[in-house]
Amino acid sequence: MNTLSPSALHRLLPFAAFMAVLMLRGAAPQDGSWGFDVRWLYGLSIPVVGGLLLYWRREYGELGRQNLPSWGEAALAVAVGLAVFGLWITLDAPWMLVGRATASFVPLDGQGQLLWPLIALRWCGATLLVPLMEELFWRSFLMRWIEHPTFEGVDPTRVGARALLLSTFCFVLVHPQWLAAAIAGLAYAGLYRRGGRLWSAVLAHAVTNGALGIWVVSSRQWQFW
């Protein structure tokens, strides 16, 4: 049985830590019995996941400065990110949903007023942290690992349809909006596969999450958060 390489673990463990934080939030009682507002548990992802990414930053060669996208590639990534955002808030019919989020996030006080520190924490996590962590796991690791277990040597531009589709299927499994998630996963993977730059997928993902956060707060459609 093959063991995972250090490169694989450097991409898998931040994702696993983030999922553990989500599970903790989902299991936490909402009645205040823990003695604090459990919505703040989301903040654990910043030092835990962010700390792991920072500690292993030298292991992520695909995120090196030399691999930044060109202006044209960046513009395409922004456009893709905005398109995915538009689809995400549209593709929400009942048949397009499976289950619900592990932990809801409604940043309102008892009088229904917005709690801006909570909103800022959530938005920064979703826009700056999650795209890096998820793209390193879903695309840099899993998609290339499905193509070949020694994924470090796999050229993302040569990843086949099987690896692209299977990794996207796994991506869908952790999102209640399965159809929107399928399109998002294919879009981000397509950017990575097209130009071979993980930053393009990260940028598109960040634009989607950032725009979604702004829309959620302005419209108060908390079910999308």
Your description of this structure?
- The chain has 225 residues and is mostly helical.
- The protein has one domain.
- Helix content is 60%, strand content 0%.
- The protein has 7 helices and no strands.
- The chain has helices spanning 6-27, 45-55, 71-88, 116-147, 161-173, 178-195, 198-219.
- Helix 1 (6-27) packs antiparallel against helix 2, helix 1 (6-27) packs across helix 4 (116-147) and helix 3 (71-88) packs parallel to helix 7 (198-219).
- The mean pLDDT is 95.
Strand-helix topology:
Elements: H1 6-27, H2 45-55, H3 71-88, H4 116-147, H5 161-173, H6 178-195, H7 198-219
Helix pairs in contact: 1-2, 1-4, 2-4, 3-6, 3-7, 4-5, 4-7, 5-6, 6-7
Number of helices: 7
Low-pLDDT runs: none
Multimerization status: single chain
How many domain modules?
1
Instruction: Choose one word for the global shape.
Output: globular
Number of strands: 0
Cα-based radius of gyration, to the nearest Å: 18 Å
Helix content: 55-70%
- What is the distance, rounded to the nearest whole angstrom, between the alpha carbons of the first and last residues? 39 Å
Which features does this protein show?
225 residues; mainly alpha; 60% helix
Short description:
This protein has 225 residues and is mostly helical. The chain is globular, with a radius of gyration of 18 Å. It has seven helices and no strands.
